[in-house]
From TrEMBL:
<dbReference type="Pfam" id="PF18693">
    <property type="entry name" value="TRAM_2"/>
</dbReference>
<keyword id="KW-0963">Cytoplasm</keyword>
<dbReference type="InterPro" id="IPR058240">
    <property type="entry name" value="rSAM_sf"/>
</dbReference>
<dbReference type="InterPro" id="IPR013848">
    <property type="entry name" value="Methylthiotransferase_N"/>
</dbReference>
<dbReference type="Pfam" id="PF00919">
    <property type="entry name" value="UPF0004"/>
</dbReference>
<dbReference type="GO" id="GO:0006400">
    <property type="term" value="P:tRNA modification"/>
</dbReference>
<feature type="domain" description="Radical SAM core">
    <location>
        <begin position="154"/>
        <end position="384"/>
    </location>
</feature>
<dbReference type="GO" id="GO:0035599">
    <property type="term" value="F:aspartic acid methylthiotransferase activity"/>
</dbReference>
<feature type="domain" description="TRAM">
    <location>
        <begin position="387"/>
        <end position="453"/>
    </location>
</feature>
<keyword id="KW-0004">4Fe-4S</keyword>
<dbReference type="InterPro" id="IPR006638">
    <property type="entry name" value="Elp3/MiaA/NifB-like_rSAM"/>
</dbReference>
<dbReference type="InterPro" id="IPR007197">
    <property type="entry name" value="rSAM"/>
</dbReference>
<feature type="domain" description="MTTase N-terminal">
    <location>
        <begin position="27"/>
        <end position="137"/>
    </location>
</feature>
<feature type="binding site">
    <location>
        <position position="172"/>
    </location>
    <ligand>
        <name>[4Fe-4S] cluster 2</name>
    </ligand>
</feature>
<feature type="binding site">
    <location>
        <position position="175"/>
    </location>
    <ligand>
        <name>[4Fe-4S] cluster 2</name>
    </ligand>
</feature>
<dbReference type="InterPro" id="IPR012340">
    <property type="entry name" value="NA-bd_OB-fold"/>
</dbReference>
<protein>
    <recommendedName>
        <fullName>Ribosomal protein uS12 methylthiotransferase RimO</fullName>
        <ecNumber>2.8.4.4</ecNumber>
    </recommendedName>
</protein>
Length: 453
């Protein structure tokens, strides 16, 4: 049983879980998956393809014939983490194939680690498979190597990420994701639904919808019938009987049309929207829409339609040129918006980002001070909102059960990045994936405690 720390990075996927089921003589691959849930989905797709070719999946370095490191390149700190992971894999195993976002900069990787076997970029599945074949030739046994219907998953059996598109058409000055992953490319509606149906049939009880820009889904189709295809997709996903949670939703006007689906119960009343800041001048320097006041009106409209909606967002403090007045505007906006779940980054330069060239970079000590003050504000809001839930009866999903408690989540909590609800009495018969009704007894800053109703 563990409580979520207040500074948990909101871009990180849950730690992958792997089980070893190696047969005698089977070629086996290990996987280190870094970065966001979108990268985790890429890792699942690569492993599913390898598993279909007869490869075993190793949960440790020693049992692997080679190791794939799926990297993150969003921030310079993430790049450093990726290089460290590559170095560790080389030290522990020696045969390493690199893929993922940082793979878009192969010279950066080979300059630090010249002994890697191959480097491929993000979602270059065929190139990864070619590199694995060259390093560890396949040796399938068609009588033994059966493929699970839902493919290889790196998350617990009861929830799964569902990636609906690649790339992004925005040009935010602090972000290099479009340079690495390209422009928006939406998956066909039928392909997304087919994958979702297989996942639900295999026991998945929660679908976490992800992309770089979820609300833009389908707008890249030239022959589309609907102005906003995400609405039809959300409606169809909501018909499958699983929880459907929407992540990375850019606040376009048509997002308001998603809210009735949440009020009706088809989609979870939860929106993950990256607002980034609230001061119009800061937003302009970010090349983001500078309409924070209108955003407050939208939030009020969403809550009017669906009073129980949970709003999560991420923000950047210490962006180049951010003045104390601009930062105070952000704090005042937070007081008005009263967001339920909040993550925050201190700005840092990323190689290739246009924000690096902006004037008036904020000193590190000022960024740290503003992060502390922002998180103090966010924590107070979270604590008050959770306290208001004491005495309420909520539906929860069980994530884990140990000797101390059952760790659960409400509809307001995404895995790893939000809070938990703990049941520490009468929980022994529960198991991961169960959905139960709980009465809330106690609230903390980020987590709840309750008893079975």
């Amino acid at each position: 049983m563990s409580q979520n720390p207040p500074n948990l990075r909101p871009d990180l996927a849950p730690k992958p879980t792997l089980a070893s089921d190696r047969r005698a003589g089977q070629p086996t691959i290990g996987m280190v998956s870094l970065g966001c849930p979108k990268a985790l989905v890429d890792s699942e797709r690569i492993l599913t393809r390898l598993r279909a070719e007869g490869y075993g999946i190793s949960p440790d370095y020693s049992g692997a014939d080679a190791v794939i490191v799926n990297t993150c390149g969003f921030l310079d700190s993430a790049k450093a983490e990726s290089l460290d992971a590559i170095g560790e894999a080389l030290s522990e195993n020696g045969r390493v194939i690199v893929t993922g976002c940082l793979g878009a900069e192969p010279e950066y990787i080979t300059g630090a680690h010249p002994k890697v076997l191959a480097v491929t970029g993000p979602h270059q599945y065929e190139q990864v498979l070619d590199a694995v074949h060259a390093a560890v030739p396949p040796d399938p046994d068609p009588f033994i190597d059966l493929m699970p219907a839902a493919g290889v998953k790196l998350t617990p059996r009861h929830y799964s990420y569902l990636k609906i598109s690649e790339g992004c058409n925005h040009k935010c000055k602090f972000c290099i994701i479009p340079d690495m992953r390209g422009r928006l490319q939406s998956r066909p509606h039928r392909a997304v639904m087919r994958e979702a149906e297989k996942l639900v049939e295999s026991g998945v009880r929660e679908l976490l919808v992800i992309s770089q820009d979820t609300s833009a889904y389908g707008t890249d189709w030239k022959d589309r019938d609907a102005k906003a295809p995400i609405l039809d997709l959300a409606r169809d996903l909501g018909s499958l009987g699983a929880w459907v949670r929407m992540h990375y939703v850019y606040p376009y006007p048509h997002v308001r049309e998603l809210i009735p689906l949440m009020a009706e119960g088809g989609v979870l009343p939860y929106l993950d929207i990256p607002f980034q800041h609230a001061h119009p001048d800061t937003l302009k320097r970010m090349a983001r829409p500078a309409a924070a006041a209108r955003t407050l009106d939208e939030i009020a409209a969403w809550r009017d339609i669906c009073p129980d909606i949970t709003l999560r967002s991420t923000f950047i403090v210490g962006y180049p040129g951010e003045t104390e007045d601009e930062f105070q505007t952000l704090l005042d906006w937070m007081d008005e918006a009263q967001l339920d779940r909040v993550g925050c980054f201190q700005y840092e330069n990323v190689a290739g980002a246009r924000s690096n060239a902006l004037p008036d970079h904020v000193p590190d000590e000022v960024k740290q001070d503003r992060w502390d003050r922002f998180m103090q504000k966010a924590q107070a809001i979270s604590e008050a909102k959770l306290a208001a839930k004491v005495g309420r009866t909520l539906r929860v999903i069980v994530d884990d059960v140990d000797e101390d408690a059952a760790t659960c989540r409400t509809t307001a909590d995404a895995p790893e990045i939000d809070g938990n609800l703990f049941i520490d009495e009468g929980f022994e018969a529960l198991k991961p994936g169960d959905m139960v009704t709980v009465t809330v007894d106690e609230a903390g800053e980020y987590d709840l405690w309750g008893r079975l109703a």
